[in-house]
DNA sequence: ATATTGACCCGGA
DNA sequence: CTCCGGGCCAATA
């Protein structure tokens, strides 16, 4: 069932620690769906759970997926900045101290 | 049942 | 930096 898939995906999202981010594809992969990047996006689009840290999910290249300038976009940007991220345009800057090793490797390669 | 549409991803040009 | 093409998968029309 799809609802079950969504549940597992949102479960992964809920487990992302403050100050760290994960790509849609990575979220899906950890939820057990290797090629479910779009599935993760769909799950987030529908879900409106109170404490869900949806803002910690960004595109694989570090950019915010929401439409630039939209209310949702600004809200995500606001929350990310509140967790210490620097936003260069629509993209996350890499000068972060608390970083996700996996995403880092995917984005910028090993240090 | 077919077609289009996304909060996607990747490699190449 | 952008644009394309192909792949992906559930929701929606």
Account of the protein in words:
The protein is mainly alpha-helical and 111 residues long. The protein is 46% helix and 7% strand. It contains 5 helices and 4 strands; from the N terminus they run αβααβαββα. It is globular. The structure holds a DNA duplex (13 and 13 nucleotides).
Task: Compute the number of strand runs.
Answer: 4
Widest sheet: strand ordering: 1-2
Q: What structural category arises from helix and sheet content?
A: mainly alpha
Can you give the mean pLDDT? Answer: 88
Report the principal-axis shape: globular
- SS element count, helices: 5
> Beta-strand percentage?
5-15%
Major beta sheet, specifics?
A: 2 strands, parallel
Output the helix-strand order: HEHHEHEEH
Query: Whole-Å distance between the termini?
Result: 41 Å
Model regions low in confidence, pLDDT < 50 over at least 5 residues:
none
Rg computed from alpha carbons, rounded to a whole number of angstroms: 13 Å
Q: Percentage of helical residues?
A: 40-55%
Structural topology:
Elements: H1 2-14, E1 22-23, H2 24-31, H3 37-46, E2 57-58, H4 71-82, E3 87-88, E4 91-92, H5 101-108
Parallel strand pairs: 1-2
Antiparallel strand pairs: 3-4
Helix pairs in contact: 1-2, 1-3, 2-3
This protein binds a DNA duplex (13 and 13 nucleotides) through helix 2, helix 3, strand 2 and helix 4.
Q: Which features does this protein show?
A:
111 residues; mainly alpha; two-stranded antiparallel ribbon; 5 helices; 7% strand; globular; DNA-binding
Give a brief description.
This protein has 111 residues and is mostly helical.
